[in-house]
Amino acid sequence: MLLAVRANEIYTIDKDGEYNFSFKKMNYSIEEYKMFMRKTKLFDLLQNHIVNNLVDYATGVETGLDSNARKNRGGHLMENLVESYIQKAGFVKGQNYFKEMYIHEIEQKWNVNLSAISNQGKMEKRFDFVIKTDKQIYVIETNFYASGGSKLNETARSYKTLAQEVATIDGVTFIWFTDGCGWNSAKNNLEETFDVLDTIYNIQDIENKIIHCLD
Question: Where are the domains of the chain?
Answer without folding.
Answer: 9-65, 72-213
